Amino acid sequence: MTSKKTYSKTQLWVSGLALLLCLTLFAGLTYAWFTSTVTNSGNIITAGTVKLSANWYDIGEDGKAAGDGYNFSKPIITETTWEPGLENAKYIEIKNEGNLNTKFRVGLNIPGYDATKTNLTEVIKFYVEEVDGLNDLGTQPVPYQSLTALDSDGNGSFFTAYNHFDVTQPQEKQTQVYRLAYKFCATAGNAYQGLNLNEVTLTIGGIQELADGDDLVFVSNIDELMTALIPEDSALLSGGKDGSTIVFLNNIELTADQWTTYQVTPGFDIDPD
After folding, report:
1. Region 202-226: what's the mean pLDDT?
2. At a CB cut-off of 8 Å and minimum separation 6, what does 217 contact?
3. What is the reported pTM?
């Protein structure tokens, strides 16, 4: 009799647990939410590149490029025992190997240049002109008097005007050829004997060309810097013209007199970024 009662209580407990489990499952189903997920993966952002390469060539008697050319790391100007009246020229081929619109120019720099002393830059003139191609008959030398000498910033740097590569143009438009010409003026006197130009550096500088409405201001000397920084309606140095980004092409040092001349506000500095 006792054993039968115990069995009935066990059945009752099992039935109760089963009922509780059913209620729990039912409650879970009652409060479930429908969901849906759509995934888009594999997205990539790749920065563009500004990349220029260059080679240089000797010029043959017919005005065409001679030989296969040289890597730009090889010195272009290697004249020795030069004398007044001599001249020479080379071709420089610049290629756009990047994928961004690029603004570029050719520059010469002469370390230790001092415009107040007798030096060869007074009697050796540099000229750069655009030409159609390395083997174009139209690239034959022209009289120097028809060329414009490179502009100097007064500190030993000489630059051409800016040129542009537009990546939307065909591949043949991604190459620009220049003729670099230089001459020892025939009027040079005895004061220039034995002088030399050491470590003349030829540089091709390129930078991303921004979209319309953006303004990049390139500066290589104090006058260009102050023109970029001083608004037209003010004589005082400000933080730069609205919307412009100033790009330094080389180091610029200000003397004490220049700080005074340009009325630089005490405490003014230029963000190195």
Report:
1. 71
2. 228, 241, 244, 245, 246, 247
3. 0.64
